[in-house]
Amino acid sequence: MPKAAVIMGSSSDMEIMKSAADVLTNMGIDHKVFVMSAHRQPEKVHAFCTAARAEGYEVIIAGAGAAAHLPGVIASWTTLPVIGVPIPSSSLNGVDSLYAIVQMPAGVPVATMAIGSAGAKNAAYFAAQMLGLKYPEIASAYEHFRAGLKSG
């Protein structure tokens, strides 16, 4: 069963969000990647979110650009942890996405990462940290990764 979902609003976001999927793979975290738009496919987003826990998901990474509503919409439909990744897809280079994702109302949080590929990677590492609280093999994989950072 997948533990993590990587969701993006458009297939054009795959270039950035592939970084998250690659990290999850390297950490040994079962995951699935989806493209669904909060604006163009709201029913699909709703159906996924309301079934996600029952389907075995434990964390959702959501990338979005421009208006960047996807992470917030997902967080409104599930109580699973949602990690938002701002995609630099507009003339504002992702700053608009960052503001849209980070400014969630109290009680409906979205953990928000940096803009772009570094943010997508950190979203997956953060997911590994959270999942590592429950799964020792994921904790070990993340600890091994961090130890490797020290040796350059």
Automatic annotation (TrEMBL):
Native species: Dehalogenimonas alkenigignens
EC id: 5.4.99.18
Biological pathway: Purine metabolism; IMP biosynthesis via de novo pathway; 5-amino-1-(5-phospho-D-ribosyl)imidazole-4-carboxylate from 5-amino-1-(5-phospho-D-ribosyl)imidazole (N5-CAIR route): step 2/2
One Pfam family named in its UniProt record: AIRC
Family: Belongs to the AIR carboxylase family. Class I subfamily.
InterPro entries on file: PurE_ClassI (IPR033747), PurE_dom (IPR000031), PurE_prokaryotes (IPR024694)
Keyword Isomerase recorded: yes
Name recorded for this polypeptide: N5-carboxyaminoimidazole ribonucleotide mutase
Single GO BP term: 'de novo' IMP biosynthetic process
Catalyses which reaction(s): 5-carboxyamino-1-(5-phospho-D-ribosyl)imidazole + H(+) = 5-amino-1-(5-phospho-D-ribosyl)imidazole-4-carboxylate
Name of the top EC class for this enzyme: isomerase
SMART domains per UniProt: AIRC
Protein's job: Catalyzes the conversion of N5-carboxyaminoimidazole ribonucleotide (N5-CAIR) to 4-carboxy-5-aminoimidazole ribonucleotide (CAIR).
Keywords assigned by UniProt, alphabetized: Isomerase, Purine biosynthesis
Domain of life assignment: Bacteria
Keyword Cell inner membrane: no
